[in-house]
Amino acid sequence: MILTVTLNTALDLTYAVPALVPHTAHRVTHTSERPGGKGLNVARVLTALGHDTVVTGFAGGPTGTVLRDRLAALPRTAGTLTDALVPVSGDTRRTLAVVDAATGDTTQFNEPGPQVTADEWAALLATYTGLLDTADAVALCGSLPPGIHVGAYGELVRLARAAGVPVLLDTSGEPLRRGIAARPDLIKPNADELAQLTGSREPLRATRDARRRGAHGVVASLGPDGMLAVTPDGVWRASPPAAVKGNPTGAGDSAVAGLLSGLVESLSWPERLRRAVALSTATVLAPTAGDFDRTAYEELLPRVTIEEPGPGAV
After folding, report:
1. For residues 48 and 79, is the Cβ–Cβ distance under 8 A?
2. Which residues pair with 10 in a beta bridge?
C-alpha cells in the first residue's frame, strides 16, 4: 500500500473559456469538479497504475463532504483508493483553474484552507502513525492549512523514517526548508521552489545544494525540459520527446506518482524518471486537470530521453 498525505485538500473546479480577457464577462464552455489537493492527485494516478493507495489529511464542512462524495464516486481502476481523511470543523477549500482555450494557458485561484485545531492535528498524527504500519511508501504533499505549525512536514518525515517507510516530500517555502532537515528519502521541487530553497537557478548546482541540505535524493521538475535527478546512485536528466501545450495542473503530482510507483516496484532510477516524465507530459495533454491521457502516456514512455549529464551539460 502507498500512503499519500494531503493536509490541505481541495475541491478542484476547472472552467474552460474561449479566451481569458481581464475586466470582461466570460461564457464558460466546460466545467469539471473533482477531489483535489496534491496528495489526492498523486493517489488517483497511483491507482490508475494499479497500486492500492490510502489517502489521509483533512476534510471538513460542506465542501469537505462534497470532496469525500466525489472521492467515493471515482471510477474503479486497477488499484484501490481508500479514504482515511480526518474530519475538521472548518470548511475544506476550493481551487479554481480557468483554462484559456485560445492560448492553452491556465490561471489558478487557490483558497487558503480551514483553520486546523491542536486536537485535529493530534487526530491526524494518530491516524498517520497507524497507517505507516502497512505502508510501503508515503508521499507528503502540498501546502499547510492555517493552524498547522511550519515544521509539520518535518515531524511527519521523522515518523515515517522511524517506521522504516520511504518518504517523499513535495512542498515549498519554509515547510520544505524545515522538512528537508528531517532527511526525507526524496524531495521533488519545481524550478521556482528549488531556486527559493537554494538561491540558485542553475539546475545542477541547485539540485546538488538541495541534497546537501538533508534530502537523500532530489528530483527537480524543469517544466517542458523534463526532470533532473541527483541521488546517491547517480545523476540523470530525463526529457520528453517534445514540448507540449495544455493544462499543466497536476503534472507535478503525476510525476510524484511515477517516482513512488517506480520505487515500490524496485525500478532503476532511469526507469523511474522515464515513467515520471511520461506521466507528467500525458497529464498536460489530458482534457481534465489532474488526470493523465493513458494513450499519450504509453506512446511517450519509450520516447523519453535519459542522459547522465556532466557539470556543463545542464
Report:
1. yes
2. 36, 93
| Residue 105 a catalytic site member | no
The backbone torsions φ and ψ at residue 42, rounded to the nearest 5 degrees and listed phi first, read -60, -45
Distance CA 291, CA 16 (A): 16
CB proximity list for 50: less than 8 A, separation 6 or greater: 77, 78, 79
What letter does residue 286 receive in the DSSP assignment?
A: S
Strands 86-88 and 81-83: unpaired
CA dist 267 and 250 (Å) reads 23
Pairwise CA distance, residues 84 & 130, whole Å: 11
Cβ distance 239 to 203 under 8 Å? no
Residue with cell 491556465: 106
Sign, CA torsion 146/151/154/159: negative
Out of 4-8, 112-116, 165-169, 305-309, least confident range:
305-309
CA separation, residue 46 to residues 21, 39, 55, 79, 257 (Å) = 36, 10, 11, 7, 6
Q: CA 179: distance to chain centroid?
A: 16
* Each residue's pLDDT tens digit, 182-238: 999 999 999 999 999 999 999 999 999 999 999 999 999 998 889 999 999 999 999
Helices and strands per DSSP (H, E), number in the chain: 10, 15
Say which of 170, 253, 291, 293 is annotated catalytic: 253
User: Exposure string (b/e) for 284-307, b if CB count within 10 Å is 16 or more?
Assistant: bbbebbbbbbeebbeebbeebebe
Type of residue at 263: L
- Distance (Å, rounded) from C-alpha 235 to C-alpha 104? 33
Neighbours of 69 (CB within 10 A): 10
DSSP state of 190: B
**Angstrom distance (rounded) from CA 263 to CA 250:** 20
Beta strands in 160-291 (DSSP E): 167-170, 186-187, 217-221, 227-231, 234-239
Q: Rounded mean pLDDT of the chain?
A: 93
- Which cell numbers hold the place of 214? 538533508
